[in-house]
Design brief:
It contains 7 helices and 4 strands, in the order βαβαβαβαααα.
Length: about 170
């Protein structure tokens, strides 16, 4: 008897993070899921591909292009934060293709400027200053929250992502 084909699961990462955030899920699902973990446009190694602000619709189209290139007709979505926003958009455009959807730390509504707090001006600061230690601290608080950052048992996670975020650099004009 032929073993079943692993179910495709498209994993969409957070803003400022990268596909490595799903390494544990990929390892845990080995043989049971076919993890597709694209790097989103305007993020990490793809930052140099863009010359303007990347919208969530741009990211959605990019991911749908990847899905189409792979010939996936039915798949599940896992989206963390910004990736969750993209997952909702994909599900809205292609509901017949979605088996399951899991959203982690995501909202399915637009956020007002007031809700965004410090984050509202952050993209402009990053473009001007790069990922200074102060900006990395702000991003870490947004991404992980005070409780996670205060947990000494998660120092390895703090260090890994602090380092990765600190390595990011906006494209200089």
């Amino acid at each position: 008897m032929t073993p079943p084909t692993p179910a495709p699961v498209v994993c969409l990462h957070s803003l400022f993070l990268d596909p490595r955030m799903f390494d544990g899920l990929v390892a845990a699902g080995e043989g049971r899921i076919r993890a597709i973990v694209p790097e989103l446009p305007g993020q990490v190694s793809r930052v140099g591909e863009v010359s303007r602000t990347v919208t969530m619709d741009d990211v959605t189209e990019d991911v749908l292009g990847t899905i189409d290139e792979l010939g996936l007709e039915r798949y599940s979505l896992v989206g963390q934060s910004m990736g969750g926003d993209v997952a909702v958009r994909i599900a809205a455009r292609r509901p017949e293709s979605i088996d399951k959807i899991v959203l982690l730390g995501s909202s399915a509504r637009a956020q007002s400027r007031e809700d965004l707090g410090e984050f509202a001006d952050l993209p402009d600061r990053i473009e001007r200053e790069g990922f200074t230690p102060e900006i990395v601290d702000i991003v870490m608080t947004i991404m992980f929250g005070a409780t996670t950052l205060a947990d000494d048992g998660r120092r390895d996670i703090h260090g890994t992502w602090r380092s990765r975020i600190g390595e990011l650099s906006p494209r200089r004009r």
